[in-house]
Specification:
CATH class of one domain: Alpha Beta
Number of helices: 10
Strand content: 15-25%
CATH topology of one domain: Rossmann fold
Keywords: ATP-binding, Cell membrane, Membrane, Nucleotide-binding, Transport
Bound molecules: adenosine-5'-triphosphate
Pfam families: ABC_tran (PF00005)
Structural class: alpha/beta
Radius of gyration: 20 Å
Shape: globular
Protein name: ATP-binding cassette domain-containing protein
CATH superfamily of one domain: P-loop containing nucleotide triphosphate hydrolases
InterPro entries: AAA+_ATPase, ABC_transporter-like_ATP-bd, ABC_transporter-like_CS, P-loop_NTPase
Largest sheet: 6 strands, mixed
Oligomer: single chain
GO molecular function, one term: ATP binding
Distance between the termini: 63 Å
Number of strands: 10
């Protein structure tokens, strides 16, 4: 685990956000210290991806503040925001690879796009990143020739190609078999520590997260409802946390999306006597 570092890289204070009339976040406070790997968990649609998009500066808060490296994202210039975003690696929703490019070109893509490095240097950096995810020999393969776990590792190599200060993962374990899941989890931790980065991941996989993260936040109904280190979470008596750790279908996190009664929905009021 990374050494304790009191300096926050990311700080959210009283963050509120709505899509139109639909208020998603109702006052979120959250801190990520430099060097940490943290997980954000919560039921489907509770606003986890929205939190990542706010931290990434893709959308702006309605109230409260999002600070990155001590700077309020709402107050910096467009150029500074662009610069900040270049220093973030993002792996969103399966980290889809460019299917018509080789593994090498996929990882080289951000380097070619955002730097003027010579082809030789790009080559060395790509091979280093592929080596870090255990796929140095696979650089000529096309995405269609990769297993799901390998493709995810290539996406990881691409996300860290520019040595980001902050890496954000949205569901990095989705769709993986148990072995690949463990490999990706360990890689997320190792890459974070080797790069001296800070990582935030949104995931439903509490057990894998408990193995690799420093801290976990649980989100529900627009607020942080529980938080703690893996040891605190394992010992927690909080019903919300318990539902997650024990994978119970129902509890404080409802199984059903809010809807009217089945009768109303299927038959319509007018058909009922
Ligand atoms: N661009 C958008 N416009 C309007 N509503 C949106 C938009 N993006 C997300 N939402 C709504 O905001 C809510 C939160 O979405 P978000 O994707 O942040 O949730 P989540 O916690 O990541 O969900 P999941 O775990 O299912 O991926 C959902 O109800 C969703 O339907």
């Amino acid at each position: 685990m990374a050494p304790e570092n009191p300096d926050p890289l990311v700080r959210l204070e009283g963050v509120r956000f709505a899509y139109g009339e639909n208020e998603i976040l109702k006052g979120v406070d959250l801190t990520v210290r430099r060097g940490q790997v943290i997980a954000i968990m919560g039921g489907s649609g509770c606003g986890k991806t929205t939190l990542l998009r706010l931290i990434g500066g893709q959308i702006m808060v309605d109230a409260g503040r999002v600070e990155l490296a001590g700077r309020n994202l709402a107050e910096i210039s467009r150029a500074e925001l662009y610069d900040m975003r270049r220093r973030m690696g993002m792996l969103f929703q399966f980290g889809a690879l460019f299917t018509d490019m080789s593994v090498f070109d996929n990882v080289a893509f951000p380097l070619r796009e955002h730097t003027d490095l010579s082809p030789e240097l790009v080559r060395d950096l790509v091979l280093m990143k592929l080596n870090a995810v255990g796929l140095r020999g696979a650089e000529r393969l096309m995405p269609a020739e990769l297993s799901g776990g390998m493709a995810r590792r290539v996406a990881l190599a691409r996300a860290v190609a520019l040595d980001p200060m902050l890496i954000m993962y949205d569901e990095p374990f989705a769709g993986l078999d148990p072995i690949s899941l463990g490999v990706i989890g360990q890689l997320i931790r190792r890459l974070n520590d080797a790069l001296g980065a800070t990582s935030i991941m949104v995931t439903h996989d509490v057990h894998e997260s408990l193995e690799i993260v420093d801290y976990i936040y649980f989100v529900s109904e627009g607020r942080i409802v529980a938080q703690g280190t893996p040891d605190q979470i394992r010992e927690s008596q909080d019903p919300f946390v318990h539902q997650f750790v024990c994978a119970e279908a129902d509890g404080p996190v409802p199984f059903h999306y809010p809807a009217g009664s089945l009768d109303e929905h299927f038959f319509g009021k007018e058909l009922r006597t």
